[in-house]
Design brief:
The complex is a heterodimer of chains A (552) and B (170). Chain A has 552 residues and is of the alpha+beta class. Chain A has 18 helices and 21 strands. Chain A has helices at residues 6-27, 33-41, 65-78, 101-110, 143-153, 226-240, 251-258, 260-274, 283-290, 308-314, 316-325, 353-366, 389-398, 429-438, 442-448, 510-524, 531-538, 541-549; strands at residues 45-47, 52-56, 62-64, 82-85, 91-93, 127-128, 168-171, 185-191, 197-203, 215-222, 326-328, 334-339, 350-352, 370-373, 379-385, 413-414, 453-456, 470-477, 480-487, 499-500, 505-506. In chain A, a hairpin with a 4-residue loop joins strand 1 and strand 2 (52-56). By secondary structure, chain B is α/β, with parallel strands linked by helices. Chain B has a single domain (3-167), classed as Rossmann fold, CATH 3.40.50. Chain B has 5 helices and 8 strands, in the order E-E-E-E-H-H-E-E-H-E-H-E-H. Chain B has an 8-stranded mixed β-sheet. Classes of the chains: A alpha+beta (552), B alpha/beta (170). The A-B interface holds A 5-7, 10-11, 14-15, 17-18, 22, 30, 35, 38-39, 121, 148, 151-152, 154-163, 227, 235, 238-239, 243, 273, 277-279, 281-282, 285, 288-289 and B 67, 88-92, 94-96, 98, 103, 119, 122-124, 126-127, 139, 146, 149-157, 161-166, 169-170.
Chain lengths: 552, 170
C-alpha cells in the first residue's frame, strides 16, 4: 500500500487549511452560496436534504485497518454511527455539520486521508479492480499506475476547473472489474508483442444522462508516456469541452462532436509537444511506485487448505458463503473474502461503525491489515488463509456481514436516492429493500445465479443502472415516483447498455415485475446460461410480453 | 490608482483595461493618451492604428475561447498579455497561460483578469501567471496570502518543470 511522504502530508494539511479558510469565509458571509459551491464540491461537500454530505476519498479503493477505524470514529463523533460506500469506491457521511467538516478533514489527514476532488468539475478519485494485486486472473498490477495517476491528478494546477467531472479507471486483469469502458478515460494495462508494458486508452465512456461506451483512441501507449498523454487529453478537453450546457459538458460529447478519430488526432498533436518532457516516467520512477505494492510476506502465514472441503461438506451455509463471497487468490492457500453490505433491511453499501471496527480487526488478524472497497459497494479482505475462512465466516455472520449473495440478485448496486440526495427524482433504498424481501429464499437466489441489479434514483446514474443486467431508474411523473426498467446491460470487457423494456412502473409493482422477468428467464434459459446471456440471446421481447401482458 | 498583485506584492497599477462594448465600433487610439492600455487581441489584429501606437505602451488580452496558437506574431513583442476569466469556474485560461509560457516562451507580464480572486491564485501562479487583477469587491490583501497556499506540487508546472517524482523526494 502507498504510504505518504512529507510532501504528501504537507499537501493534505495545506488543503485542510485552505478549506478551513474557505468555510470560515462562507460562514462569515464573505463568500456567497454560488461562490462557495464549487469550492466545497471540490472538497467532497454537498448540501443535501437533511445535512451536508461529505464524501471521503479512498484512493483506488485501498484502505488499511487504521484508516477504517478512523472512519468509524468519524461516523460516531460527527455522523449517526454509519457511513455509505459509493460506486466509486469512496465513503460518504450523510449527517455532519458544515462547521465540523474542517475538523473531520484534519482527523482524516492524520491517517493519510482526505476529501480532495471527490466531487466538482475536476479529476475524481481514480478507481480500479478491488482485487488488484491478488486476483488469480491478473495480467499486470494496476496499483502503481493508480498511484502515479493519483499524484498527477491531485491539485493539478491546470485542470482544477474542467467543463465537468472527470473519471479515470484502470484495469489490469482478464476480466475488466473496473468498468473502464464507462469512464471518461479507461486505461487497460497491457503488454505488447515486444513485452513492453503500456496502456490501451479508451475515452468518452460514461453513464449519466447520455450513456456511452468508451472507444479506443490508442491501442498501445508505452508506459513511460502515461502522464504526458493524460496531460494532452485533459488539455484538449479543458480547452474545447463545452461549458455552455452542463448536460453536454462531459468529454463524451466532445469526442462525439469531433469524432473519435478527430479527437485522437487533436490529442496526438498536443501530445507531440509534451511527449518526452519532464513528466515522462523513467524506469526508476516506475520502480519507485511499484515498490509500494509488493506482495506481503505470504510465507509468514503459510497457506494451508486445512479442512475446507470437509467444513463445506458439513455446513451448507458455509459452503454457500464460500462459493459466493470468496474469490480465487493468486497465492495458493489464500482467498479474497467479500464482506457483503447487501443485507436485507440495510441500505446497500451502508456500514456501521461497529462493522468498520470489526472488519479492521479481521484485516489484522486474518490478513495483512489491508482492505478494499468494491465498486459494487462491498468490502473486501484481500488476503485470507483458507484455513481461517471458517472462523472468519462465523464472525462475519454474527456481525451481519456474511449474506451469501455476492453477484446474486440481492447484491444490489444502489445510490442513496430520494431519501438523502437532493438530485434524486425517486427513492431507491426502499425499492432495493422490497426486492431483497421478495427474494429472501436463498435456494431460489442461488438457482438464478449471477444477476446484477443496479438502481439509480435519477438519470445521473450513480447506481450505474445502464450497465445492470437489470437496471432500475427512478423517474418523476407529475410528482410521483415511477421506475423504468432496462434489461441486458453489463459491465466488463463486453460492456453494454441496457434497453428500456417499456413504460415505467409504480413503486409497489417493482418486486412483482422483477419476479415476472425472472420467471421468463427460468423458462427460457439454456443449461448454464446466465440471466444477461439469455436476454442477449432472446432479446427483450419475451420479457416485455410477460410484464406488460399480464396487466392489460 | 487600483491595486493589483504582481510578483507576490500588492502594487499600484497604471494599465487601463479596454473591454469592447457590444454593437459599438472599437475606438481608435487617442494620440494624446499616454497611458498604458490593454486592448482585446482582436483589436490588435484588426487595427493598424493600435499596432503602430507610440504614445503609451499597449498590451493585449485574450478571451477564454481565444487560442494562443492562432496569433502569428511573437508574443514577446507585448510588454503585457492578459487572459480573461469570464467565471472563476472557467478553467480554460489555465491552459492558455501555460501554453503562452511553455510553448510560446512568453516572458513578459502575464495577468489574470475577470472573475479572479483568492482561491484561484495558487494554481494560476503555477501555470505561469505573475499578475492578478482581483475582482472588484474582493479583498486584495487577503488574496495575496493565497499565493502560498501550497508549498509543493506533484506535477510538472511552468514554475517547477520537474515533477515531484523526479526531484528525488521519495
Amino acid at each position: 500500500m502507498y504510504r505518504y511522504n512529507d510532501i504528501d502530508r504537507e499537501l493534505v494539511d495545506q488543503r485542510v487549511a485552505q478549506f478551513r479558510d474557505q468555510t470560515e469565509r462562507f460562514l462569515a458571509g464573505e463568500l456567497d452560496d454560488e461562490e462557495f459551491r464549487p469550492l466545497r464540491l471540490m472538497n467532497g461537500l454537498y448540501i443535501q436534504r437533511h445535512a451536508p454530505m461529505l464524501r471521503v476519498a479512498i484512493p483506488y479503493g485501498h484502505l488499511n485497518s487504521v484508516q477504517l477505524r478512523t472512519l468509524a470514529e468519524i461516523a460516531r463523533r460527527w455522523d449517526r454511527g454509519y457511513g455509505h460506500f459509493t460506486t466509486r469506491q469512496n465513503i460518504q457521511f450523510n449527517w455532519p455539520k458544515l462547521a465540523d467538516v474542517p475538523d473531520i478533514l484534519a482527523l482524516l489527514a492524520t491517517v493519510e486521508m482526505h476529501a480532495i476532488q471527490t466531487s466538482g468539475n475536476c479529476v475524481r478519485n481514480t478507481t480500479t479492480d478491488a482485487f488488484a494485486g491478488v486476483a488469480a486472473d491478473e495480467l499486470l498490477d494496476p496499483r502503481p499506475w493508480c498511484e502515479i495517476i493519483r499524484q498527477w491528478s491531485t491539485l493539478h494546477p491546470e485542470f482544477a476547473y474542467l467543463p465537468r467531472k472527470f473519471k479515470i479507471a484502470v484495469s489490469g486483469s482478464v476480466e475488466d472489474r473496473a468498468a473502464t469502458r464507462v469512464h471518461d478515460i479507461g486505461l487497460q494495462v497491457v503488454r505488447n508483442a515486444a513485452g513492453e508494458t503500456g496502456f490501451r486508452v479508451l475515452v468518452g465512456g460514461g453513464l449519466g444522462r447520455t450513456p456511452v461506451i468508451g472507444e479506443v483512441i490508442r491501442e498501445f501507449l508505452p508506459a513511460p508516456h502515461l502522464l504526458t498523454y493524460l496531460d494532452a487529453v485533459l488539455r484538449v478537453y479543458n480547452r474545447f469541452g463545452r461549458r455552455d450546457n452542463k448536460y453536454k459538458a462531459r468529454i463524451k460529447i466532445l469526442v462525439k462532436a469531433m469524432t473519435v478519430e478527430g479527437f485522437a488526432a487533436k490529442v496526438d498533436d498536443e501530445w507531440q509537444h509534451l511527449k518526452d518532457g519532464p513528466s515522462t516516467l523513467r524506469a526508476e520512477d516506475i520502480a519507485h511506485f511499484s515498490s509500494f505494492f509488493v506482495d506481503p510476506d505470504y510465507h509468514l502465514k503459510p497457506g494451508a487448505h486445512g479442512d475446507l472441503a470437509q467444513q463445506a461438506g458439513e455446513d451448507r451455509g458455509f459452503a454457500r458463503w464460500l462459493e459466493r463471497n470468496t474469490r480465487p487468490h493468486k497465492e495458493p492457500g489464500y482467498r479474497s473474502v467479500v464482506l457483503s453490505l447487501k443485507k436485507t433491511g440495510v441500505p446497500p453499501g451502508d456500514i456501521t461503525a461497529e462493522q468498520m471496527e470489526a472488519a479492521a480487526d479481521w484485516a489484522e488478524r486474518f490478513g495483512f491489515g489491508e482492505l478494499r472497497v468494491t465498486h459494487e459497494q462491498n468490502l473486501v479482505l484481500p488476503d485470507v488463509r483458507e484455513a481461517d475462512l471458517h472462523a472468519l465466516w462465523l464472525l462475519a455472520r454474527e456481525a451481519g456481514f456474511a449474506t451469501p449473495n455476492i453477484g446474486l440478485l440481492t447484491d444490489i448496486i444502489c445510490c442513496p436516492g430520494g431519501d438523502f440526495c437532493s438530485l434524486a427524482n425517486a427513492k431507491s433504498i426502499p425499492v432495493a429493500e422490497a426486492i431483497q424481501q421478495t427474494f429472501a429464499d436463498m435456494d431460489y437466489l442461488h438457482d438464478l445465479g449471477e444477476i446484477e441489479l443496479n438502481m439509480s434514483g435519477c438519470m445521473n446514474a450513480c447506481g450505474h443502472h445502464h450497465i445492470g443486467h437489470i437496471g432500475i431508474l427512478g423517474v418523476d411523473k407529475n410528482g410521483e415516483e415511477w421506475y423504468q426498467i432496462t434489461l441486458g446491460g453489463q459491465q466488463g470487457e463486453q460492456a453494454a447498455l441496457g434497453k428500456v423494456i417499456g413504460p415505467s412502473f409504480a413503486r409497489a409493482r417493482i418486486p412483482e415485475v422483477i419476479a415476472e422477468l425472472l420467471q421468463v428467464y427460468v423458462a427460457l434459459r439454456q443449461e448454464g446460461e446466465r440471466f444477461v446471456d439469455t436476454v442477449h440471446r432472446t432479446g427483450i421481447a419475451p420479457f416485455k410480453e410477460k410484464v406488460y401482458a399480464a396487466h392489460h | 490608482m487600483p491595486h493589483i498583485i504582481k510578483d507576490g506584492e500588492i502594487i499600484d497599477d497604471g494599465w487601463l483595461l479596454m473591454r469592447l462594448k457590444e454593437g459599438l465600433p472599437a475606438p481608435a487610439p487617442d494620440a494624446a493618451e499616454q497611458a498604458d492600455v490593454i486592448i482585446p487581441l482582436s483589436l490588435w489584429r484588426d487595427s493598424a492604428e493600435w499596432r503602430e501606437r507610440t504614445a503609451g505602451r499597449t498590451g493585449v488580452w485574450l478571451g477564454a475561447d481565444e487560442a494562443p496558437d492562432l496569433f502569428p506574431g511573437d508574443w514577446n513583442d507585448f510588454p503585457l498579455v492578459a487572459v480573461d476569466f469570464p467565471a472563476f469556474t472557467d478553467g480554460r485560461g489555465y491552459s492558455i497561460g501555460r501554453l503562452l509560457r511553455e510553448r510560446y516562451n512568453y516572458a513578459g507580464e502575464l495577468r489574470a483578469i475577470g472573475d479572479v480572486w483568492k482561491d484561484q491564485l495558487a494554481f494560476l501562479w503555477q501555470v505561469g501567471f505573475n499578475a492578478f487583477e482581483i475582482k472588484h469587491g474582493k479583498p486584495v490583501e487577503d488574496a495575496l496570502a493565497a499565493l502560498k497556499s501550497f508549498t509543493g506540487h506533484y506535477q510538472s508546472t511552468w514554475r517547477q518543470p520537474e515533477p515531484l517524482f523526479r526531484r528525488g523526494i521519495k
